[in-house]
Amino acid sequence: MTAKTEKDYFENMGIRNPLLWLVLIALLLFFTFASLAQIVLKMPIGDNPMPNWALVAGTIFIAFITVLMAQTRLSTSINSEGIEINFGALGQHQLSWKEIKKVSIKRPPLSGIGKRQRGPQQIIYNVGAKTSLCIELKEDLKIWVSTRNESNLKAYLKEIKKLKA
Hints:
The chain is an alpha+beta fold. The protein has two domains: 15-71; 74-159, no CATH class. The chain has helices at 18-40, 52-71, 150-159; strands spanning 9-14, 73-78, 82-86, 92-96, 100-106, 113-118, 122-127, 131-137, 142-147. The protein is elongated. The mean pLDDT is 88.
C-alpha cells in the first residue's frame, strides 16, 4: 500500500484486559520476590523450595511474556487501495478492494484476545474490543479485526463508499 495520508483510516490498539495485566504483574512480583528472598537473602520459600535456577527461569519467562503482551499491537490501515492488518508475530494481511466482496461492522463470533482460526473460512484478530470489522473476501474467507473506534471506522467506510448505509 502507499504511504499514509490524511484521507486514510488508521487504528492502532494494544491489549487492555485488566485481569490479564493483574495476573501477569502479580506473577512477576511473586517470582521476583521469591528469587531475591531465596537467592540473595538465603531464605527458602516454603517447606519444599523450588531450585534457584527454576525461580530465575520463571522470573525471566514471566517478564518476557509481560513485555511481549505490552508490545503486541493490532494495527488496521484502510485507504482507497485496500486494507492492511498487522498483528505483529500473530499475522498480517494486505488486501486490495478487488479481493474484498464486502465489509461490515458487527460483533465478532468469538471473544477473547489473540488470533483465532475458526474453521478454514474465518480468521479473527481480537484485542478484546466488542465490535469488529468483518471483511468478506471473494475466496470465501472472513477476516474479523477488532475495533474500538466503531463510529469513526463506519464514517470512513461510508465516505469511501465501501459500507452501505
